[in-house]
Amino acid sequence: MSEETAPYGTGPAKADAPAPAPRSGPAKVRTHHLREMKERGEKFTMLTAYEQYAAQTFDEAGIDVLLVGDSASNNVYGNETSLPVTVDELIPLTRAVSRSVRRALVVGDLPFGSYQASPEQAYLTAVRFMKEGGAHCVKLEGGVEMAPQIERLTRGGIPVMAHIGFTPQSEHALGGYRVQGRGETSARVLADAEAVQDAGAFAVVMEMVPGDVAGEVTRKLRIPTIGIGAGNETDGQVLVWQDAFGLRTGRMAKFVKQYADVHGVLLEAAKAYADDVRAGTFPGPEHTF
Ligand code: KIV
To answer: What is this structure's pTM?
Structure first.
Protein backbone atom coordinates (compact mmCIF):
# COMPACT_ATOMS: atom_id res chain seq x y z
CA MET A 1 0.00 0.00 0.00
CA SER A 2 1.44 3.42 -0.90
CA GLU A 3 2.14 5.88 1.90
CA GLU A 4 0.01 8.99 2.05
CA THR A 5 2.03 12.20 2.22
CA ALA A 6 1.26 15.90 2.58
CA PRO A 7 0.28 17.80 -0.57
CA TYR A 8 2.61 20.39 -2.11
CA GLY A 9 0.47 23.22 -0.81
CA THR A 10 -2.45 23.57 1.53
CA GLY A 11 -4.78 25.12 -1.03
CA PRO A 12 -7.02 28.06 -0.32
CA ALA A 13 -8.27 29.04 3.14
CA LYS A 14 -10.73 26.41 4.36
CA ALA A 15 -13.19 26.26 7.18
CA ASP A 16 -10.77 24.01 9.10
CA ALA A 17 -7.75 26.28 8.48
CA PRO A 18 -6.28 27.99 11.56
CA ALA A 19 -8.25 31.12 12.34
CA PRO A 20 -6.48 34.43 11.81
CA ALA A 21 -4.84 35.85 14.92
CA PRO A 22 -7.53 37.23 17.23
CA ARG A 23 -7.88 40.99 17.02
CA SER A 24 -10.60 43.45 17.76
CA GLY A 25 -12.93 44.57 15.00
CA PRO A 26 -15.21 42.82 12.53
CA ALA A 27 -14.94 39.13 11.66
CA LYS A 28 -15.21 40.08 8.00
CA VAL A 29 -14.29 43.57 6.85
CA ARG A 30 -17.00 45.30 4.80
CA THR A 31 -16.93 48.71 3.13
CA HIS A 32 -19.10 50.21 5.89
CA HIS A 33 -16.56 49.16 8.53
CA LEU A 34 -13.95 51.46 6.97
CA ARG A 35 -16.39 54.34 7.15
CA GLU A 36 -17.15 53.52 10.79
CA MET A 37 -13.43 53.37 11.59
CA LYS A 38 -13.02 56.83 10.08
CA GLU A 39 -15.89 58.11 12.22
CA ARG A 40 -14.23 56.67 15.33
CA GLY A 41 -10.85 58.10 14.33
CA GLU A 42 -9.36 54.58 14.02
CA LYS A 43 -6.72 54.04 11.34
CA PHE A 44 -7.01 51.03 9.04
CA THR A 45 -4.47 49.06 7.04
CA MET A 46 -4.18 47.99 3.40
CA LEU A 47 -1.49 46.10 1.49
CA THR A 48 -1.26 44.71 -1.99
CA ALA A 49 -1.46 40.92 -2.43
CA TYR A 50 -1.33 38.89 -5.61
CA GLU A 51 -1.34 35.25 -4.52
CA GLN A 52 -2.39 32.71 -1.90
CA TYR A 53 0.32 32.63 0.77
CA ALA A 54 0.98 36.35 0.99
CA ALA A 55 -2.79 36.92 1.12
CA GLN A 56 -3.24 34.33 3.90
CA THR A 57 -0.34 35.77 5.88
CA PHE A 58 -1.54 39.37 5.64
CA ASP A 59 -5.08 38.28 6.51
CA GLU A 60 -3.75 36.40 9.53
CA ALA A 61 -1.83 39.57 10.54
CA GLY A 62 -5.12 41.47 10.59
CA ILE A 63 -4.53 43.67 7.54
CA ASP A 64 -7.99 45.09 6.84
CA VAL A 65 -7.90 45.50 3.06
CA LEU A 66 -5.98 43.59 0.38
CA LEU A 67 -5.59 45.18 -3.03
CA VAL A 68 -4.88 42.97 -6.03
CA GLY A 69 -3.23 45.96 -7.65
CA ASP A 70 -2.46 46.54 -11.28
CA SER A 71 1.02 46.92 -9.77
CA ALA A 72 1.07 43.13 -10.38
CA SER A 73 2.24 44.31 -13.79
CA ASN A 74 5.63 45.35 -12.38
CA ASN A 75 5.66 43.12 -9.28
CA VAL A 76 4.48 39.79 -10.73
CA TYR A 77 4.58 39.94 -14.51
CA GLY A 78 7.97 41.63 -14.98
CA ASN A 79 6.79 44.75 -16.83
CA GLU A 80 8.34 48.15 -16.21
CA THR A 81 5.06 49.94 -15.51
CA SER A 82 1.46 49.12 -14.64
CA LEU A 83 0.25 49.89 -18.17
CA PRO A 84 0.64 46.51 -19.95
CA VAL A 85 -1.22 44.28 -17.48
CA THR A 86 -4.60 42.98 -18.71
CA VAL A 87 -7.94 42.01 -17.19
CA ASP A 88 -7.26 38.38 -18.12
CA GLU A 89 -3.95 38.49 -16.25
CA LEU A 90 -5.37 40.12 -13.11
CA ILE A 91 -8.50 38.03 -12.67
CA PRO A 92 -6.72 34.76 -11.75
CA LEU A 93 -4.62 36.65 -9.17
CA THR A 94 -7.77 38.23 -7.74
CA ARG A 95 -9.39 34.81 -7.50
CA ALA A 96 -6.35 33.39 -5.68
CA VAL A 97 -6.45 36.22 -3.13
CA SER A 98 -10.20 36.21 -2.58
CA ARG A 99 -10.18 32.43 -2.06
CA SER A 100 -7.38 32.71 0.47
CA VAL A 101 -8.71 35.29 2.92
CA ARG A 102 -11.23 34.94 5.71
CA ARG A 103 -11.41 38.49 7.03
CA ALA A 104 -9.88 41.09 4.70
CA LEU A 105 -11.82 43.13 2.17
CA VAL A 106 -10.48 42.23 -1.30
CA VAL A 107 -10.20 44.99 -3.89
CA GLY A 108 -9.78 44.18 -7.60
CA ASP A 109 -7.89 46.89 -9.49
CA LEU A 110 -9.26 47.74 -12.94
CA PRO A 111 -6.28 47.92 -15.31
CA PHE A 112 -5.47 50.62 -17.87
CA GLY A 113 -7.85 50.62 -20.83
CA SER A 114 -10.50 48.46 -19.18
CA TYR A 115 -12.83 51.22 -17.90
CA GLN A 116 -11.87 54.64 -19.28
CA ALA A 117 -13.80 54.32 -22.57
CA SER A 118 -17.29 54.46 -21.03
CA PRO A 119 -19.34 53.73 -17.90
CA GLU A 120 -20.64 50.61 -19.68
CA GLN A 121 -17.13 49.33 -20.35
CA ALA A 122 -16.29 49.97 -16.68
CA TYR A 123 -19.36 48.08 -15.53
CA LEU A 124 -18.69 45.05 -17.73
CA THR A 125 -15.06 44.87 -16.58
CA ALA A 126 -15.96 45.30 -12.91
CA VAL A 127 -18.56 42.52 -13.16
CA ARG A 128 -15.80 40.16 -14.34
CA PHE A 129 -13.67 41.06 -11.29
CA MET A 130 -16.61 40.37 -8.98
CA LYS A 131 -17.91 37.18 -10.66
CA GLU A 132 -14.70 35.54 -11.91
CA GLY A 133 -12.23 37.05 -9.44
CA GLY A 134 -14.41 37.01 -6.34
CA ALA A 135 -13.45 40.63 -5.57
CA HIS A 136 -15.56 42.38 -2.94
CA CYS A 137 -15.18 45.75 -4.67
CA VAL A 138 -13.07 47.40 -7.38
CA LYS A 139 -10.65 50.30 -7.63
CA LEU A 140 -10.20 52.68 -10.54
CA GLU A 141 -7.98 55.69 -11.16
CA GLY A 142 -9.25 59.20 -11.80
CA GLY A 143 -11.25 62.00 -10.21
CA VAL A 144 -13.81 64.37 -11.75
CA GLU A 145 -13.58 62.68 -15.15
CA MET A 146 -14.37 59.24 -13.68
CA ALA A 147 -17.56 60.31 -11.90
CA PRO A 148 -19.84 58.75 -14.59
CA GLN A 149 -18.00 55.41 -14.27
CA ILE A 150 -18.22 55.47 -10.47
CA GLU A 151 -21.95 56.32 -10.60
CA ARG A 152 -22.61 53.47 -13.06
CA LEU A 153 -20.79 50.86 -10.97
CA THR A 154 -22.36 52.04 -7.73
CA ARG A 155 -25.82 51.94 -9.30
CA GLY A 156 -25.05 48.41 -10.50
CA GLY A 157 -24.22 47.22 -6.99
CA ILE A 158 -20.43 47.35 -7.23
CA PRO A 159 -18.60 49.25 -4.46
CA VAL A 160 -15.88 51.51 -5.85
CA MET A 161 -12.62 52.67 -4.30
CA ALA A 162 -11.32 55.69 -6.23
CA HIS A 163 -7.64 56.64 -6.70
CA ILE A 164 -6.55 60.26 -7.17
CA GLY A 165 -3.41 62.39 -6.93
CA PHE A 166 -0.64 60.60 -8.80
CA THR A 167 -2.33 57.90 -10.86
CA PRO A 168 0.27 55.48 -12.28
CA GLN A 169 -1.87 54.54 -15.30
CA SER A 170 -1.55 58.20 -16.42
CA GLU A 171 2.21 58.32 -15.89
CA HIS A 172 2.82 59.51 -19.46
CA ALA A 173 0.06 62.11 -19.37
CA LEU A 174 1.31 63.42 -16.01
CA GLY A 175 4.93 63.65 -17.22
CA GLY A 176 6.38 60.97 -14.95
CA TYR A 177 6.23 60.06 -11.27
CA ARG A 178 5.50 63.45 -9.71
CA VAL A 179 3.85 64.68 -6.55
CA GLN A 180 0.38 66.04 -7.39
CA GLY A 181 -1.42 68.88 -5.66
CA ARG A 182 1.47 71.17 -4.71
CA GLY A 183 0.64 74.87 -4.43
CA GLU A 184 -2.32 76.05 -6.49
CA THR A 185 -3.00 72.57 -7.86
CA SER A 186 -4.13 71.42 -4.40
CA ALA A 187 -7.63 72.64 -5.36
CA ARG A 188 -7.66 70.01 -8.10
CA VAL A 189 -7.02 67.21 -5.58
CA LEU A 190 -9.88 68.43 -3.40
CA ALA A 191 -12.21 68.75 -6.42
CA ASP A 192 -11.33 65.19 -7.48
CA ALA A 193 -11.91 63.88 -3.96
CA GLU A 194 -15.31 65.56 -3.68
CA ALA A 195 -16.32 64.38 -7.16
CA VAL A 196 -15.59 60.72 -6.43
CA GLN A 197 -17.36 60.94 -3.07
CA ASP A 198 -20.43 62.54 -4.69
CA ALA A 199 -20.40 59.88 -7.42
CA GLY A 200 -20.67 57.16 -4.76
CA ALA A 201 -17.12 55.92 -4.09
CA PHE A 202 -16.87 54.31 -0.63
CA ALA A 203 -13.19 55.26 -0.18
CA VAL A 204 -10.43 57.06 -2.03
CA VAL A 205 -6.71 56.36 -2.37
CA MET A 206 -4.49 59.45 -2.55
CA GLU A 207 -1.07 58.81 -4.02
CA MET A 208 1.91 61.18 -3.78
CA VAL A 209 0.02 64.19 -2.48
CA PRO A 210 1.57 66.65 0.04
CA GLY A 211 0.70 65.62 3.60
CA ASP A 212 -1.10 68.86 4.49
CA VAL A 213 -3.29 68.64 1.36
CA ALA A 214 -4.15 64.98 2.08
CA GLY A 215 -4.96 65.96 5.68
CA GLU A 216 -7.31 68.70 4.53
CA VAL A 217 -9.05 66.37 2.06
CA THR A 218 -9.40 63.73 4.78
CA ARG A 219 -11.05 66.20 7.15
CA LYS A 220 -13.43 67.45 4.44
CA LEU A 221 -14.59 64.05 3.16
CA ARG A 222 -17.19 61.77 4.76
CA ILE A 223 -15.64 58.72 3.05
CA PRO A 224 -12.31 57.28 4.24
CA THR A 225 -9.06 58.29 2.56
CA ILE A 226 -6.12 55.92 2.10
CA GLY A 227 -2.66 57.34 1.63
CA ILE A 228 0.39 56.17 -0.24
CA GLY A 229 2.97 58.92 -0.12
CA ALA A 230 0.31 61.24 1.33
CA GLY A 231 1.53 61.74 4.91
CA ASN A 232 -0.01 60.37 8.08
CA GLU A 233 -3.28 62.25 8.31
CA THR A 234 -5.23 59.94 6.01
CA ASP A 235 -7.66 57.40 7.49
CA GLY A 236 -5.78 54.39 6.15
CA GLN A 237 -2.40 53.59 4.61
CA VAL A 238 -1.44 51.30 1.73
CA LEU A 239 1.91 50.02 0.48
CA VAL A 240 2.98 47.53 -2.18
CA TRP A 241 4.11 44.56 -0.12
CA GLN A 242 7.23 43.73 -2.14
CA ASP A 243 8.46 47.27 -1.37
CA ALA A 244 7.44 47.32 2.29
CA PHE A 245 8.83 43.88 3.12
CA GLY A 246 11.89 44.02 0.89
CA LEU A 247 11.26 41.36 -1.73
CA ARG A 248 12.06 44.01 -4.32
CA THR A 249 15.51 45.56 -4.09
CA GLY A 250 16.87 48.78 -5.57
CA ARG A 251 15.69 52.36 -5.36
CA MET A 252 12.53 52.89 -3.33
CA ALA A 253 10.15 55.82 -3.36
CA LYS A 254 10.60 58.24 -0.42
CA PHE A 255 7.26 57.13 1.06
CA VAL A 256 8.25 53.46 1.45
CA LYS A 257 9.31 52.15 4.86
CA GLN A 258 11.00 48.75 4.72
CA TYR A 259 9.90 46.40 7.49
CA ALA A 260 11.78 43.29 6.40
CA ASP A 261 14.38 41.93 4.01
CA VAL A 262 12.46 39.09 2.37
CA HIS A 263 14.85 39.16 -0.60
CA GLY A 264 17.79 38.54 1.75
CA VAL A 265 16.00 35.65 3.48
CA LEU A 266 15.11 33.99 0.16
CA LEU A 267 18.58 34.54 -1.23
CA GLU A 268 20.25 32.86 1.75
CA ALA A 269 17.73 29.99 1.71
CA ALA A 270 18.24 29.38 -2.01
CA LYS A 271 22.04 29.42 -1.60
CA ALA A 272 21.86 26.99 1.36
CA TYR A 273 19.66 24.62 -0.66
CA ALA A 274 22.01 24.78 -3.65
CA ASP A 275 25.03 24.13 -1.39
CA ASP A 276 23.31 21.08 0.18
CA VAL A 277 22.33 19.59 -3.18
CA ARG A 278 25.81 20.14 -4.63
CA ALA A 279 27.42 18.61 -1.52
CA GLY A 280 25.06 15.61 -1.60
CA THR A 281 23.70 16.39 1.89
CA PHE A 282 20.13 16.96 0.73
CA PRO A 283 18.01 14.89 0.62
CA GLY A 284 19.09 13.12 3.79
CA PRO A 285 17.72 9.82 5.12
CA GLU A 286 14.91 11.71 6.90
CA HIS A 287 13.68 13.02 3.49
CA THR A 288 13.88 9.67 1.76
CA PHE A 289 11.07 7.08 1.43
O1 KIV B 1 -1.78 48.92 -7.95
C2 KIV B 1 -1.42 49.31 -6.83
O3 KIV B 1 -0.59 48.71 -6.16
C4 KIV B 1 -1.99 50.55 -6.33
C5 KIV B 1 -1.52 51.04 -5.00
C6 KIV B 1 -0.20 51.66 -5.15
C7 KIV B 1 -2.49 51.93 -4.36
O8 KIV B 1 -2.81 51.14 -6.96
So the answer is: 0.94
